[in-house]
Amino acid sequence: MMRAMSLPDPWQHFVNARRARRVERGLERILRPGTRASGTRIIRNSRELVSFAGNDYLGLASHPAVRAAAASCAKEFGVGAGASRLISGAHDLHAQLERRIAAHRGSERCLLFTSGYHVNVGVLSAFADADTLVASDELNHASIIDGCRLSRAKVVVYKHCDYEHARAMLASHQGRRLLVSDTLFSMSGDMANVGELSRVARDTGALLVLDDAHGYGTLGGSGRGVLEEQGLDESAAHIVTATLSKACGSLGGYACGSDDLIELLLNEARPFMFSTAGTLPDISAAMAAIVIIASAEGRALRERLKTLGKRLREGVHRHGFETGGEAHIVPVYIDGPERAVALSRRLEEAGFIAPAIRPPAAPWNRSMLRLCLSAAHDDADIDGLIQALAASSR
Ligand SMILES: Cc1ncc(COP(=O)(O)O)c(C=O)c1O
Predict the structure, then answer these.
(1) Residue 359, preceding peptide bond in cis (omega within 30° of 0)
(2) pTM of the full predicted structure?
(3) Is 245 in the pocket of ligand 1 (CB under 6 A)?
(4) Whose CA is nearest to atom 16 of ligand 1?
(5) 182 lines ligand 1 (CB under 6 A)
(6) Domain of residue 161, CATH code
(7) Which residue, judged by its Cα, is nearest atom 10 of ligand 1?
(8) Which of 50, 222, 353, 373 is such that its CA lies 20 to 30 A from the CA of 20?
(9) Which of 293, 326, 360 is at the close of a domain?
(10) Does 152 lie in the same domain as 164?
(11) How many H helices and E strands in the chain?
C-alpha cells in the first residue's frame, strides 16, 4: 500500500485552492511520457509523432559521435561527478571542456554549470545586489527573471528590444547597472540587436549579460551564436551565457567572460558552489558536440536549419498564417488561446507535436503555435506539418 503523511488542514486547503486556480485559468499541466525515437520522433501510446517541440536543433543528441563519447566516458570514468567542483567534483574533463568553449567563442575564460537555468540564476545573483539596477527585456527567459529575484536588485523591465527604453531606465539610476537580454528569444524567435545593447551598456556604464542559449551552435559561420551571426566578437558583452542542452544535445550550461568576472562567479555564484558538477558522460557528449559544431559538418547542419526555416515560413504563409522570428524558432500566430489549443490537438491527431503557447507564457494578444526546427527534420516533415496545419484550420 502507498503511504504519504496526511496534510494539516491549512496545507490541504492551500493545495486544493492552487489546483482550482490552475484549472480555472487553464494552466493545469500534465506529463506525457513517451520514448524519444530520434532527434525529431517521439513515440507516445505506440504512435510515432514528428516533434516540433524540442531544442535538439542540430540533432546532435543522437549523433553517433556524441553517443559514443558519452558511452565510452561512462565506461571509463563512471557517471556522477560525486561533488560540487569546489569540493571534490572537479574533473579534468570539466576543465578541458571549459578551455574548448572559451577557445571556440574567443573569450578569455569559461565556467561550466549544471544547467543553463543555473547559469543565469548564478550570474544575476552574483553580480546584482540591492544597490544594482537591472534592466531586463520583457521577453527574457524565466531563469533570468528568477536570477533577478534572487539578487534582490531593483529590476526594471523594458519593452521588448526597445533599447531607448532600457537606456532611459538605466540612466535614471545612480549606483551599479546591469543590462540583461536573451540573444535569440525563446518564444518570439526574434533576435536582440547586440550592437545596440552594447552601445547602451557602454553609454550607461552597465554590465552587459547576454543569454545565447538558443544561438550557440545554431547561428554564426562557426556556430559561435548570435554575436557571430551579427558580425560581433566577444568584446560586445561582458558575460555571455549559454546551455549545453540545446544545440549541443547534452546537459549543462556555461558563462564566458573575462578572467576577473569568471573568478567572481567561481567564488560567489551559488548554483555553481552548492550543486554537484555536471556528469562526466554529459561533459564528454558536449565536447564531442562542440567539435562537430565547429567543423564543416556543423556548418552544413546550420545551413540545413536555415533552409528548413525558409521552407516552413514560406509554406505557412501560403496558407495565410502570420509567423514571427527569423531563425529556427518559428511562432505561428493564432487568433485566441482556445483556437491555438484546438489546433495543437488536431495537429497531434495528425501526427505532429506543435505546442500551443498562450497567456501568460505568450502576450495576451499573441497566442501561437511554437514550432522548433531541427536539422534532423526532413523536407517531408515540414511539408506534412504545413498540410496538416492548413487542413486543421479549415
Ligand atoms: C533562453 C534560455 N535560457 C536558459 C535556459 C535554461 O537552459 P537549461 O535547459 O540548460 O537549464 C533556457 C531553456 O529553455 C532558455 O530558453
Answers:
(1) no
(2) 0.96
(3) yes
(4) 186
(5) yes
(6) 3.40.640.10
(7) 116
(8) 353
(9) 293
(10) yes
(11) 14, 15
Domain that holds residue 300: 33-57+296-392
> Does residue 162 sit in the same domain as residue 192?
yes
Q: Are 289 and 359 members of one domain?
A: no
Closest CA to 243 of 21, 22, 61: 61
Contact yes or no for 389/332 (Cβ under 8 A): yes
d(CA 119, CA 115): 7
Cβ atoms of 233 and 106 closer than 8 Å: yes
CA 30, CA 230: separation in Å to the nearest integer?
A: 39
Question: Which residue, of 260, 293, 326, is where some domain finishes?
Answer: 293
CA distance 376 to 305: 9
Same domain flag for 179 and 306: no
For cell 531541427, what's the residue?
374
For atom 8 of ligand 1, the residue with the nearest CA is: 116
pLDDT in tens, the chain (394 residues): 889 999 999 999 999 999 999 898 877 888 888 888 788 999 998 999 999 999 999 999 999 999 999 999 999 999 999 999 999 999 999 999 999 999 999 999 999 999 999 999 999 999 999 999 999 999 999 999 999 999 999 999 999 999 999 999 999 999 999 999 999 999 999 999 999 999 999 999 999 999 999 999 999 999 999 999 999 999 999 999 999 999 999 999 999 999 999 999 999 999 999 999 999 999 999 999 999 999 999 999 999 999 999 999 999 999 999 999 999 999 999 988 889 999 999 999 999 999 999 877 777 778 999 999 999 999 999 999 999 999 987 7
Is ligand 1 within 6 A of the CB of residue 137?
no
For the Cβ of 143 lying below 6 angstroms from any atom of ligand 1, the answer is yes
Is there a single domain that holds both residue 250 and residue 115? Answer: yes
Q: Check whether residue 80 and residue 196 sit in a common domain.
A: yes
Probe residue for ligand 1, chosen from 143, 148, 248 as the CB with the greatest number of ligand atoms within 8 Å: 143
